[in-house]
Amino acid sequence: MQPGQRLARGVSRYLRSMGFAAIEEFVPLRGLRVDVMALGPKGELWVIECKSSRADFQSDSKWQGYLEWCDRYFWAVDVEFPTELLPEETGLILADAYDAEVVRMAPEHKLAPARRKKMIQKFAMDAARRLQSLRDPRPGRDGQLFTPLASEEG
After folding, report:
1. I want to staple 47 with a disulfide (CB 3.0 to 4.6 A). Which of 64, 70, 77, 94 is the partner?
2. pTM of the predicted model, to two decimals?
3. How distant, in Å, are the alpha carbons of 13, 30, 36, 59, 118 from that of 114?
4. pLDDT tens-place values along the chain, 154 residues long
């Protein structure tokens, strides 16, 4: 696993202990991919971006585009990361590959009801598809959906 993936795993474990469900590498909209999207027990949506180094953070020019897709926005970093680089108006999670802890709660900016509904539905569909692909990596006949049987051809 890459350093950011290890952070995402620790964050996801922590969130699960708090009653959240988390999906890594979630795409709220074409062209945007968040490291971790979490759905809380009250329907709240959190985005967590995992940064493994100063260079990783400084090369991220899309993060502000994620703000409109969540109720709270967090950075997840390890204890060696220079946290003074991170914007103070965002949340902060310290993490490693096994666990995490919120050290600065992100301010809440509630999503509009229509967007919340859309995001929760997308979250559910993505999670269900991922689970199904784990259980049945080759759906249909020979990995092809809707492949006609030889007796049905010609």
Report:
1. 70
2. 0.85
3. 29, 18, 21, 32, 6
4. 898 999 999 999 999 999 999 999 999 989 889 999 999 999 999 999 999 999 999 998 889 999 999 999 999 999 999 999 999 999 999 999 999 999 999 999 999 999 999 999 999 999 999 999 888 877 666 656 655 555 555 5
Tell which residue, 33, 62, 28, has the closest CA to residue 45: 28
* Closest C-alpha to 6, from 112, 96, 100: 96
Q: Residue 47: which residues within 8 A CB-CB, separation 6 or more?
A: 34, 36, 37, 38, 66, 67, 69, 70, 72, 73, 74
CA dihedral 122, 128, 130, 136 (to 10 degrees): -150
In this structure, the number of other CB atoms found within 10 A of the CB of residue 101 comes to 11
Residue 46 tokens, joined = 């959190």
Distances in whole angstroms, Cα of residue 86 to Cα of each of 39, 82, 112, 121:
23, 8, 26, 31
Instruction: Find tokens 């953070």 and name the residue.
Output: 57
Closest CA to 45 of 108, 129, 95: 108
